[in-house]
Amino acid sequence: MKHVLPWLTWWLALFWLWLLLVGEWNRQQVVAAAIAATIAATLAELARVRTGFGARLPPRALADAAQVLGKVVVGFGVVVWALLASAARRRIVRGELVSRDVERGAESARGVGPRAWTALAGSYSPNAYVIDIEPEAQTVLLHDLVPNRRSERPS
User: Fold this and answer.
1) DSSP H helices in 23-109
2) How far apart are CA 66 and CA 124, in angstroms?
3) How do the pLDDT tens digits run along the chain, 155 residues long?
4) Which of 1, 22, 130, 143 has the lowest CB atom count within 10 Å?
5) Cβ distance 131 to 97 under 8 Å?
6) Which residues pair with residue 97 across a beta bridge?
7) Residue 132: enclosing H or E segment and its boundaries?
8) Torsion from C-alpha of 7, 11, 13, 16, nearest 10 degrees
C-alpha cells in the first residue's frame, strides 16, 4: 500500500503532462497518455524504491503555491518594463547575480525536498531564477533580470 500513492501521483502527473504537451484530446491520445504514464510511473516508483530516495515537503512549503502564481504576474510586469526601458534607452538591460538569505532559514535550506521546492518555486518568475542554494550558509544564489524582491519569493 505504501507504493500505491506515490505511483498514482506519478501516473496522474505524467498522464496530464502528456495531454498538455500533445495538445490533442482525442481517444488515441488519451490511450497513449495512459500507456506512457503507466510505464513511466512504474519505472519512477521502481527507481525511487531501489535508490531509497525520499524528498518530503513540509506542509508550510505548499502554502507558498498561491504566492508563486502571484509572482509570475509581478515578474512578467518587470520583464515588460525592462524591455520597454531597453527600447527607450537603446541600451539592453542586463541581468545580474544576487545572493539572498533563505527566507525561512534552516528549515527550507536543509533537506532535499525543501531545497527542491525552494528552487522550483523561486524559478517560476520570468524575472528571476534560482541557480544554487547553499544549506550551510542559508543563502540562495539567483539571477535577476531586474532586481526585485517580490519576483524572487519564496526563495
Assistant:
1) 27-51, 59-62, 65-89, 106-109
2) 12
3) 788 988 999 999 999 999 999 998 899 999 999 999 999 999 999 998 998 887 777 777 777 777 777 888 888 888 898 899 889 999 888 888 888 887 655 555 567 777 888 788 878 888 888 888 888 778 888 888 887 766 666 55
4) 1
5) yes
6) 143
7) strand 128-134
8) -170
Distance between CA atoms of residues 42 and 61, nearest Å: 27
Cα–Cα nearest to 100, from 131, 121, 78, 60: 131
Look at the chain and count its residues: 155
Question: What type of residue is 103?
Answer: E
User: What is the distance, to the nearest Å, from the Cα of residue 84 to the centroid of all Cα atoms in its chain?
Assistant: 27
128 alpha-carbon distance from chain centroid: 12
Angstrom distance (rounded) from CA 22 to CA 33: 9
Q: Residue 118 is placed in which grid cell?
A: 525552494
Grid-cell match 498538455, residue found: 20
Cell of 33: 497518455
- Which residue carries 490511450 as its cell? 31
